[in-house]
Write a structure and sequence with these properties.
Radius of gyration: 24 Å
Largest sheet: 3 strands, mixed
Number of helices: 7
Strand content: 5-15%
Strand order of the largest sheet: 2-1-3
Number of domains: 2
Shape: globular
Distance between the termini: 80 Å
Length: 181
Amino acid sequence: MLAHQISRRILQSSWTRAGAAWLFSMIGLAGSCCPVHADERQVQRGKYLVGIVGCGDCHTPGHFFGKPDLSRALSGSEVGFEVPQLGVFYGSNLTPDKETGLGNWSVAEIVAAFTRGITPDNRELSPAMPWRGFSAMTAADANSIAEYLKTLKPIKNAVPGPFGPTEKPTSFVMKIVPPSN
C-alpha cells in the first residue's frame, strides 16, 4: 500500500518513469544485497550441531567438574588434556570475544580449525580436538556451526596454555596415559 502511494506521488511529480524505476530498483537492492546475519535456520542448525557433537564438554568452564557454568557456555575450559610428548592443551574460548575468543576469526577460519585442525596462525590443533572426525562434516553443516558461534554473546575468558611437553601447566590437567607394552 505504502509503495503504491509513493510510486503514484513520484509519477505525479516531475520525475520520469525511468527515474522512478531506477529509484525503486535501488531501494530493492539496498534491502537485499547485504544480509547482516546468517539465515536463522542456518544458525539454529549450527546450535543443534554444537549441542549434539558435544562442543560444550571441552569448551565450557566447570564441565569436567560436573558443574558446567552455562552462563559462560563455550567460553573455554579450565581443565587441560595432557598428551604425552606434546604438552597440555585447554579447550579454547569459542565465543566471539575479540581478545580471548574467536571474535577476530572469519567463518572460513573457524571452519578450517574444526575440520582441518589449522588455526589462522597456522598452528595445528591438539589431537585432543577431534577435528579429524569433524572433517567428514558437510560444508553446509560446518558453516552452520561457525555462523552459530559468531552469534554467541562474547565472553572474556582467557584459557591457560597451550603448554609444551617441558612446561608446567597452571591449571587442572587430565592426563592421557598410553598403555604399557
